[in-house]
Design brief:
With 496 residues, the protein is α+β, with helices and mostly antiparallel strands. The chain has 15 helices and 20 strands. The relative contact order is 0.18.
Length: 496
C-alpha cells in the first residue's frame, strides 16, 4: 500500500506511534487493531514502502526459524551432549507465530501466499561434525515438536533429499544430514506489506517517506516525536502516548535519544553480508530445501552458510551464503556515521570489552571482506560440488546490528539474539538485535504488550487466546494439542 496524501495521514496526536515499516511494527499494529480497534495508531517509515530493510527476503529474512535446521540453536556442550531446550523454545515461539498468521488469514485480513511448505535440512561433513549431528538428532527427535526429524549418513538418501549437495562429492567423504519435511519458507516482505495493508484499511495512519529524527519526553508523560517528510523537507512533531521503536538497526539511535535509563549501556555492532543468487532455472528447479551447515570459526551465528530455496513474490529462487562483511551503517540505506555516532559514555566500556573479546569475529570479517569471487565460489562448492561461478549473481544483503550490552564480569558482551527494552512506565519500547527476529515477531510483540499495557493486558488475554489457541501452553509438553494446532494452521496457511 502506498501512503495516502499527507493531509489524510498527518496527525499531531496519536495513541500509538510505530517507528519503522518492518515486520515488528506491522505485527504490533496488527495485534492492536485486533485488541484495541478504537485506538489511534500512526506508522512512520523512512522508505517509500513497507518491508524494504531487514524484512525483505533478499536482505536477511526468509527462513521460518523453528530451529529445525539452524545448528547454532543447539550447540554441543563440552562433553558432546546436545541440550534441546533452546531449540524447543524457539520452535514454541514459531508455533505462536503460525497461529497468529493463521487467525489473520482465516479472518480474511491477509492472504496465505507469504508462506510455503519447504523441507528444512542440516548438512555436515567429517567425522566430528557427523557425530555431533547424530547426537543432535537423538536429542531433538525425542521432543514432540521435533519427532518427525529424520537422520541419515547414506549418500543415496541425501541425494534423494537434496541432489545438488551430493553430485560430484568425494565418495570417501563422510557426510550426514537431518531433515524435517514439514518446514516452511516465509516471504517476510510480502507478509509485512499485507499486515500494513490491513492496518491501513482499518484506520492506521501510514506515513511512508517520513523519517523520525528525535524522540523526547513531553510534559504530560508521553512522547514528542520529530518527523521529517523526506520528499518536501518539512518537519513536524507528533505527540504520542506510546511509542514503539521498531526501526531495525536504526532503533539504537532513537532509543538513545529517548534517554530512558533502561536503554543506557546498549551498543551495536553492524555486520553486513552478501549472497550468491542462482540465475540458472535448471539449477533452481532441482533444489527444494533449506540446507544449513556449520558456521566457520569466529563467524557470528547469523552467518551460518546455507543453500536456501526461497519464494519471493511467488517466484522460486535459490540463494547461497551469507558471506560476512563490515560496514559502519546500521541500515542498508543508513549512514557511514551510524556506528561512531552510537558511541556514548554509557556504552563505551561494553563496546571496548566486546572489541577485546571478539578478535576471532574481527578476523573472520576481514577474511570475508578480502574473499575473491573465486573464493566465494569455493565456499559454495563445499555445499554444491559441481557449482560454477557462472549462473550465480552476487547480491548485497541487509545490515544486522548485533546487540552489545553491559556485563558485570566482562564489562560487555556481544549478543546474537534480540533484546526487548521498555521504559519502567511502559510508555516506550524498542527492539534491538537480529535472529530469529522476524519468525518470532508475534511472541515478541505479545511480550511487549504485556510490559507496555499491564492494565489492559488481562482484558486482552481472552482475545489473544482466541487468536492463538496454544497461548500459555507449552506445546512440546502437550502433544495432542500440538498436533491439532499443526493440522489446523497447516490447512489455513495452505501448507498441507
Amino acid at each position: 500500500m502506498t501512503a495516502n496524501s499527507p493531509a489524510e495521514n498527518s496527525a499531531t496526536k496519536t495513541d500509538v506511534l510505530l517507528i519503522g515499516g518492518g515486520i515488528m511494527s506491522a505485527t504490533l499494529g496488527a495485534f492492536l487493531k485486533q485488541l484495541a480497534p478504537d485506538w489511534d495508531i500512526s506508522l512512520y517509515e523512512r522508505l517509500d514502502r513497507a518491508g524494504l530493510e531487514s524484512s525483505d527476503p533478499w536482505n536477511n529474512a526468509g527462513t521460518g526459524h523453528a530451529a529445525l535446521c539452524e545448528l547454532n540453536y543447539s550447540p554441543a556442550a563440552a562433553d558432546g551432549s546436545v541440550d534441546p531446550a533452546k531449540a524447543v523454545g524457539i520452535n514454541e515461539q514459531f508455533q505462536v507465530s503460525r497461529q497468529f498468521w493463521s487467525h489473520l488469514v482465516s479472518e480474511g485480513h491477509i492472504g496465505n501466499d507469504f508462506i510455503n511448505p519447504l523441507p528444512h535440512m542440516s548438512f555436515v561433513w567429517g567425522d566430528a561434525h557427523s557425530e555431533y549431528l547424530r547426537r543432535r538428532h537423538e536429542s531433538l527427535s525425542a521432543q514432540p515438536l521435533f519427532k518427525t526429524m529424520e537422520f541419515s549418513e547414506d549418500p543415496a538418501k541425501l541425494a534423494e533429499w537434496a541432489p545438488l549437495i551430493m553430485e560430484g562429492r568425494d565418495p570417501g567423504q563422510r557426510v550426514a544430514a537431518s531433515r524435517v519435511a514439514g518446514g516452511t519458507d516465509v516471504d517476510f516482505g510480502n507478509l509485512t506489506r499485507q499486515l500494513t495493508n490491513y492496518m491501513g484499511a482499518n484506520g492506521v495512519h501510514l506515513n511512508f517517506g517520513h523519517e523520525v529524527g528525535n524522540v523526547t519526553r513531553s510534559s504530560n508523560g508521553g512522547w514528542d516525536v520529530k518527523v521529517k517528510d523526506r520528499a518536501t523537507g518539512t518537519t513536524s512533531t507528533v505527540s504520542a502516548k506510546f511509542v514503539f521503536i521498531g526501526g531495525g538497526g536504526g532503533a539504537l539511535h532513537l532509543l538513545q535519544a529517548s534517554g530512558i535509563p533502561e536503554g543506557k549501556g546498549f551498543g551495536g555492532f553492524p555486520v553486513s553480508g552478501q549472497f550468491l543468487r542462482a540465475t540458472d532455472e535448471s539449477i533452481i528447479s532441482r533444489h527444494n530445501a533449506k540446507v544449513y551447515g556449520q558456521a566457520s570459526v569466529g563467524a557470528p551465528p547469523m552467518s551460518v552458510p546455507h543453500l536456501d530455496t526461497r519464494f519471493v513474490n511467488g517466484k522460486r529462487s535459490l540463494l547461497f551464503g551469507p558471506y560476512g562483511g563490515f560496514s559502519p551503517k546500521f541500515l542498508k540505506t543508513g549512514s557511514l556515521l551510524d556506528l561512531p555516532l552510537s558511541v556514548r559514555p554509557s556504552n563505551l566500556v561494553p563496546m571496548l570489552a566486546v572489541a577485546k573479546d571478539n578478535m576471532s569475529l574481527v578476523k573472520y570479517l576481514v577474511t570475508e571482506v578480502l574473499k575473491t569471487r573465486e573464493g566465494k565460489t569455493a565456499a559454495l562448492q563445499e555445499f554444491m560440488p559441481q557449482a560454477q561461478t557462472e549462473g550465480w549473481d552476487l547480491i548485497t544483503a541487509g545490515q544486522r546490528v548485533q546487540v552489545i550490552k553491559k556485563d558485570p564480569k566482562k564489562g560487555g558482551v556481544l549478543q546474537f539474539g534480540t533484546e526487548l527494552i521498555t521504559a519502567a512506565d511502559g510508555s516506550i519500547g524498542a527492539l534491538l538485535g537480529a535472529s530469529p527476529g522476524a519468525s518470532t515477531a508475534p511472541p515478541i510483540m505479545i511480550n511487549l504488550l504485556k510490559r507496555a499495557f499491564p492494565r489492559q493486558f488481562d482484558g486482552w488475554e481472552p482475545k489473544i487466546k482466541e487468536m492463538i489457541p496454544g497461548y500459555g501452553v507449552k506445546l512440546n509438553e502437550n502433544e495432542r494439542l500440538a498436533e491439532e494446532i499443526e493440522a489446523d494452521t497447516s490447512r489455513v496457511l495452505g501448507l498441507s
